[in-house]
Amino acid sequence: MNSKGERTMKILMVLTSHDQLGNTGRKTGFWLEEFAAPYFVFRDAGVDLTLASPKGGQPPVDPKSDLPENQTPAMARFKQDSEAQKALSKTLKLSVMKSEDFDTIFYVGGHGPMWDLVDNPDSIALIESFYNSGKPVAAVCHSPAVFHRVMFEGVPLVKGKRVTGFTNGEEEAVHLTKVVPFLVEDELKRVGGLYEKAADWESFAIVDGRLVTGQNPASSTAAAKALITLLGEGAVTGAFAYFGGWFSTDELTPSRFADRFEEVNGVHTGFRRNHAKGLGVSGFFESNGNGVRLSKATVFEARRVQVIGRFSLDGGQPYQSDRPDTRRGLGLQFSLPHGELWRTAMISFPLFPVRTPEIFYERLLAFKSDPATGKPDPAKVKAFEERHPETVEVLKVITARPLSSGFGNTTFYGLNAFRFTNAAGKTTPVRWILEPMQPFEAASAAPPDKNYLFDELIMQIHRQPLRWRLILIVGKPGDPTSDPSIGWPADRQQVDVGVLTLNRVEAEECSAARDINFSPLMLPAGMAPSDDPVLSARSAVYAQSFTRRAGETKQPSAITPADVMKGE
Ligand code: HEM
Description:
Catalase HpII,  Chain A, domain 1, 2 domains, Rossmann fold, 8-stranded mixed beta sheet, alpha+beta, 10-stranded antiparallel beta sheet, binds protoporphyrin IX containing FE
């Protein structure tokens, strides 16, 4: 247990014991960055770590990985850290490890594993045992090859799953194509994996269900963080990808972010740490096929798919009074063919008020209500605005727009940019919005009913389904993708790709949406995150919020099942 009374996560990290680079007479081993970076990601997340290798004891470092040109901050930290060095020198024997003792297993890469781990019966049995018991398995660089003989339900584990690993091009670049027993990329494809890669040496990791793979040394951090996020999200299906660019500095971790929400709002057990007040909905999305030219995601093929959603109000107060100017939210989950999921959480603002996760974190505290006045401390607000005049400017644009009267006639904005890839392999930057088909009506002052927005939503859905058009906004090369506070030029092409219909409403207590984490990185094949650091931050902080609330006793929501019945 940690200081918050949460169970400590247990991770088994596996390294190679092999130090001969084929018949070259040269030395190999594990790649130091691929141990050091994940090791510190895990240790900083408070994980209980065990290290193992086929022979036990000190595993061999690939001397090449420690050359001056390959040095990284994590390696520098490792060299100063006697605890890490000691742990590495005393790895346990892989053959005595048991999946029951851990939450997941992570394979460190390097060329060494190609000789002593990829066909190692202890390793194969261990991975199968982890995976069969519902636990995630992860590997980076050459180590995704350890999955090539692993079977699940009678077929290779990687068959039909999105995977990555050291590319043929990267192997060629290090002149070892003819030395390694097989090429990781070719072998993963041969056994049926849906192999994907970023450019050589770029950071790239993929999560598909419980399988996490990273491409190369630069992907070590992304793969480790993807694994931590996955553990935080609990069992998920579908896939999502990480393109490096993790937001977190050593000072700002997902846990600290969630702590700050709690500091500002108090702890409301069982509720989301942000967008705490909400209502479940469901319905369907009918695609008109227009999106296919931008993305091969099945959601854009002309068909109907089921949708679960949740309307919410910004802020960590589950019982706050509805106000016309509070940011409105809509989280959606599209259930796609072959078990894929697409999740998106959108808001009623056309721009995100802040550029980066760090500024959002800072702003939360600056706008914390003073218990004496019920309002933020003007001095703190002023100090924040002086530090971030750009946020003041963005808010001017946001507040200049007229507010709509209710949830039903609100436009919802996805804000962050994504990368869409079509069947021909063409990638385009894309954002999306949901445009209401209910007519616009301007908001008036809040009536005394503290749930008036939600009550009206319930009445409307009981009367007739509510509908929105999903519009893709097509970016051009050079359009900024890493900053959700900057819009794209107004003349960018807009593609109407189909209609969302919401025809059922349910109190949170009764809705499947309560237990969904509307992570923006739960994406189907054909959609991938952009370089926006807010995306990885959101994914990580939502997972943290989800983990906390999932383990807590639930309290009744502001909008009760009786309120929903009243609207019938
Ligand atoms: C660094 C930036 C952000 C942070 C740290 C953050 C944090 C959070 C947290 C902690 C939750 C609760 C998650 C849960 O327990 O399931 C949440 C929910 C939500 N966020 Fe964010 N958020 C960020 C940016 C955004 C942006 C850019 C959007 C809109 C595009 C957005 C829209 C929403 C919505 C609609 C929900 C409610 C979803 C639901 O009903 O579960 N957030 N956010």
